[in-house]
Each structure stands twice: as structure tokens, then as C-alpha cells.
């Protein structure tokens, strides 16, 4: 039985590993993809309701469909799997501190937005808030 010479075997394995990484990249890219998909889904819900995602503009509709049926904050929630995926892709656990910072600041933005939604939609907002969790 003829075995390939070590350098050919080594580089053949390296090419196979890289090929598998591209074909089936695993959880790192899956997390990023899930976050991007969630962000796209929530953005479509806003477009269908013909309202704005701009924090400085007054919303014209309370969006309660799509991912907003399960979370009041899917826009910010979508960032979490994206950032976790990037931490895994880069392989630097120290980057997780940035994820903590993101979650902290996102929580503060959500507080601000929810106050504005209460002012805009009153009882409708209170009813929605009482039935849908802030995150998941």
C-alpha cells in the first residue's frame, strides 16, 4: 500500500480542513447568520408597519408582529449572536468584555425607547408590555 509522502498528506489534510470550514463552517458563522436573519426579520416588520426604526423620529405604529411577538427588543437581541459569533471566529475570549458592554448599553437604550413608546402609545403599549418579554 502506497501512502502519500508526509508533506503531501499534511497539505492535503490542510486543504480538506479549509474546504470543510467553507462548506460547513459550524456554529461561529451560524451564530452570525442567525443574528443577521433576526435583524432582517425585525426590520421587515417595521417596514410592513410603515413606521420608523430611527430613535429620533416618532413611531407611527406599535410593531407587535414577527419577532416582536416574543421579544420587545429583537433589534438589540440580534446583535448578541453576531457578537458571540465574532468572538468565536476571532478566538479571543477577551472580546467577550465588549459583548458585556454591548448588552449594558443596549439595556439603557431599551429603557429610553420603552419610555418613548409609553408616551406614544399609552395603554396599547402597557398591554403589549404586559404580554411580551423584554428580551426572550
Q: Could you please describe the fold and organization of this structure?
A:
With 136 residues, the protein is mainly alpha-helical. It has one domain (26-131). It is built from 5 helices and no strands. The protein has helices at 6-23, 27-48, 74-77, 79-90, 96-131. Helix 2 (27-48) runs antiparallel to helix 4 and helix 4 runs antiparallel to helix 5 (96-131). It is elongated and about 80 Å long. The termini are far apart. The mean pLDDT is 88.
User: Largest sheet, described in full?
Assistant: none
Spatial shape:
elongated
Q: Structural class from helices and strands?
A: mainly alpha
Oligomerization state = single chain
Keywords:
136 residues, mainly alpha, 0% strand, elongated
What would a concise description of this structure say?
The chain has 136 residues and is mainly α. Helix content is 68%, strand content 0%.
Record the SSE blueprint:
Elements: H1 6-23, H2 27-48, H3 74-77, H4 79-90, H5 96-131
Helix pairs in contact: 2-4, 4-5
